[in-house]
């Protein structure tokens, strides 16, 4: 199944055509590998898609959201420490703004059980008043005095309609979606006696998706639609749709809209809720639940076709959102994602949840113009609760790099980067695999100090030079690197070091350590850019497919390309590499336990590959494909015989 993907100002993903297929051949060197030496300031948003961004690794975000000066609107306090989700509602009747906030005890499950509280602004968000609880459990209802946290609201026909989450006191045993109505947003809200969904009675979709939650109610021309989530934590999350002639139901069967099991490109670890409507489109933002919590995607579909999986596309992949370097946003977006709506002036308003430095939930507001999603220049890059890494999708041997940046915490400018990328685990709270922090040189900066370092293939770090400067969060730097390894470093107008390092070709990028934040105003590189590749570990293949590592045997062995790989314990299994590029090379060992594998690229079948050999053979290229549109792709591998083995994939950049 092919799925079109749109990112920012780029057009729809072109169909794969004119590709060159090479089976069991050597890695091919892309043609036109060097360009004329020139200066490019990669801190300009016209180069936004030349940066690597990923749900686990991190996202250099050029987004133009601006915070309101009164954040946070709401702070968690015991026994409700986590107000971490919410729905931002603009009332077409009164003109008031409302924040329906899911109010949880720390850890979500309670006690006390979660509830919904309401904030109101009568002056376009300048001040807010807490109206208290508007929805809570009832011992005489199906929730048995349990949970009623996250809601969405629609005004139609003179009445306010709500879909909300419910759960019994032991949230994990039963719950679902339910309906309520009111004559005004403040309530009272009248709950239907029968829920829309009851998870304990639902048939699991794809054998795993059963729990329904986080529903957005949407009015269409001739019916009502709910977009909501199902999950199979901690590996998989899915968006589904269902429709009904009336807001209270009965609703149709659930239709999967976006999920990792599909053959199209789909960033993993994404939680949705809530969606919003603008014009003839429904938009579904989603946030990664990896530890650094700084990657978002916006999906969209024509509202009247939104129940068709093929109607959905990625509207923007990364550079959607950034965390501010303030105490109220210490965890990035925490909870679901931002809740948005667009006013008559084409301003996109967003309510977003986070957690402060004490770990308490916060509810905050921001806005930007709908038609200007990106800054012209400058991007944010943060580690939040886990480290982040990004690099350019091109290589340099010799270059001059000029940077202006603001840094809180510890950051690293890297060059000669050629490490394999992957998560440490294919689950929520994932961080970078240790191998992803190897194989590079770097300039590490912190307030008052710097050091030049080299990291080898084993992750051993060697300090080449170091020094002190007056403490500051503002850095102006210039790195001149020759192809022979000679270097000069200038910081804040002073040449602080010159010397020589091992010469190698690789990418240039950034690392933000956990709890660190960078704003990059200038990142200008003069040199001859070369077409490069990005290598992905077997854990990336797990991540894209939603695989459980317990079903695999991990091995540290020289048979694998980077000394680490995995074999499926029993039959079955699936690998899926989501990648950005104009081609790829698949690496794999061969041996007596392996057999034939089936391959799919963007939903189209490729010729199978036989990995069976009488004697073990070390990892080698088994499939190369070039000439694809330089955009987002998904390569899927399924076993036909023998045991499935997972090694690595190279993405070739156009």
Separation of the first and last Cα atoms: 24 Å
What's the CATH superfamily of the largest domain, by name? Glycosyl hydrolase domain, family 43
Shape: globular
Task: From the 3D structure, determine the CATH topology of the largest domain.
Answer: Tachylectin-2, Chain A
The CATH architecture name of the largest domain reads 5 Propeller
Number of domains: 3
CATH class of the largest domain: Mainly Beta
What multimeric state do the chains show?
Answer: single chain
Low-pLDDT residue intervals, each spanning 5 or more residues: 1-35
Q: In percent, how helical is the residue content?
A: under 10%
User: What structural class do you assign from the helix and strand content?
Assistant: mainly beta
Give the radius of gyration.
25 Å
Major sheet details: 7 strands, antiparallel
Q: How much is the average pLDDT?
A: 93
Discrete helix count: 1
Number of strands: 47
Strand content is over 45%
Question: What does the model show?
Answer:
The protein is mainly β. The protein folds into 3 domains: 20-28 and 534-652, Galactose-binding domain-like (Jelly Rolls, Sandwich), CATH 2.60.120.260; 38-61 and 383-530, Jelly Rolls (Sandwich); 66-373, Tachylectin-2, Chain A. Helix content is 1%, strand content 47%. The strands form 10 sheets. Strands 2, 25, 27, 32, 33, 34 and 36 form a 7-stranded antiparallel beta sheet that branches. Strands 26-35-28-29-30-31 form a 6-stranded antiparallel beta sheet, with no helix packed on it. A 5-stranded antiparallel beta sheet has the order 1-44-41-47-37. The longest helix is centred in the last third of the chain and has 8 residues, at 538-545. It is globular, with a radius of gyration of 25 Å. The two termini are 24 Å apart.
């Amino acid at each position: 199944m092919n799925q079109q993907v749109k990112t920012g100002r780029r057009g729809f993903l072109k169909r794969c055509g004119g590709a060159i297929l090479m089976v069991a051949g050597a890695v091919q060197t892309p043609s036109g590998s060097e360009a004329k030496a020139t200066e490019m300031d990669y801190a300009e948003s016209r180069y936004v898609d030349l940066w690597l961004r990923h749900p686990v690794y991190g996202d250099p975000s050029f987004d133009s959201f601006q915070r309101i000066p009164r954040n946070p609107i709401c702070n968690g306090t015991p026994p409700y420490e986590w107000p971490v989700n919410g729905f931002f509602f603009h009332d077409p009747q009164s003109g008031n703004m409302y924040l329906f906030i899911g109010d949880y005890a720390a850890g979500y499950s309670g006690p006390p059980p979660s509830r919904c509280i309401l904030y109101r602004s009568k002056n376009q968000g300048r001040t807010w008043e807490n109206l208290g609880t508007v929805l809570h459990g009832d011992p005489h209802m199906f929730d048995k005095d349990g949970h009623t946290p996250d809601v969405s609201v629609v005004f139609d026909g003179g009445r306010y309609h709500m879909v909300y989450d419910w759960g019994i006191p032991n949230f994990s045993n039963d719950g679902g979606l339910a309906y309520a109505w009111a004559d005004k947003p403040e309530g009272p809200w009248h709950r239907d006696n029968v829920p829309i969904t009851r998870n304990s009675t639902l048939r699991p979709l794809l054998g795993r998706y059963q729990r329904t939650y986080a529903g957005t109610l949407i009015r269409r021309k001739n019916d009502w639609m709910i977009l909501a989530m199902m999950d199979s934590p901690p590996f998989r999350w899915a968006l589904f749709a269902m429709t009904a002639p009336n807001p209270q139901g009965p609703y149709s069967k659930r239709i999967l809209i976006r999920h990792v099991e599909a053959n199209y490109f789909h960033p993993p670890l994404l939680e949705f809720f809530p969606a919003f409507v603008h014009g003839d489109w429904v938009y579904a933002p989603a946030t990664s639940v990896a530890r650094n919590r700084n990657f978002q995607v916006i999906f969209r579909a024509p509202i009247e076709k939104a129940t068709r999986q093929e109607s959905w596309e990625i509207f923007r992949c990364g550079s959607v959102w950034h965390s501010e370097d303030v105490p109220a946003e210490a965890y990035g977006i925490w909870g679901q994602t931002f809740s948005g709506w667009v006013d008559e002036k084409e301003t996109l308003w967003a309510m977003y949840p986070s957690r402060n430095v004490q770990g308490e939930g916060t509810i905050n507001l921001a806005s930007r113009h709908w038609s200007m999603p990106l800054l012209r220049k400058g991007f944010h890059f943060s580690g939040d609760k886990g480290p982040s890494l990004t690099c350019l999708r091109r290589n340099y041997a010799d270059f001059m790099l000029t940077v202006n940046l603001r840094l809180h915490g510890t950051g690293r400018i890297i060059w000669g980067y050629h490490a394999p990328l992957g998560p440490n685990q294919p689950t929520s709270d994932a961080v970078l695999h240790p191998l992803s922090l190897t194989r590079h040189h770097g300039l590490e900066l912190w307030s008052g100090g710097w050091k030049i370092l080299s990291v080898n293939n084993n992750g051993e770090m060697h300090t080449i030079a170091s020094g002190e400067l007056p403490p500051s969060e503002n850095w102006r730097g210039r790195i001149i690197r020759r192809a022979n390894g000679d270097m000069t470093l200038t910081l804040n107008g002073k040449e602080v070091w010159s010397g020589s390092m091992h010469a190698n070709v690789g990418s240039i990028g950034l690392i933000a350590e956990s709890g660190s934040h960078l704003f990059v105003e200038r990142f200008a590189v003069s040199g001859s850019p070369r077409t490069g590749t990005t290598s992905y570990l077997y854990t990336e293949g797990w991540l894209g497919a939603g695989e459980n590592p317990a079903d695999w045997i991990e091995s540290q062995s020289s048979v694998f390309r980077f000394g680490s790989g995995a074999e499926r314990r029993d039959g079955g299994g699936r690998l899926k590499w989501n990648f950005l590029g104009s081609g790829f090379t698949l690496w794999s060992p061969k041996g007596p336990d392996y057999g034939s594998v089936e391959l799919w690229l963007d939903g189209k079948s490729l010729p199978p590959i036989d990995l069976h050999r009488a004697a073990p053979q070390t990892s080698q290229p088994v499939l190369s494909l070039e000439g694809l549109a330089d955009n987002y792709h998904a390569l899927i591998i399924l076993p036909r015989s023998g045991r499935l083995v997972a090694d690595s994939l190279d993405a070739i950049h156009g």
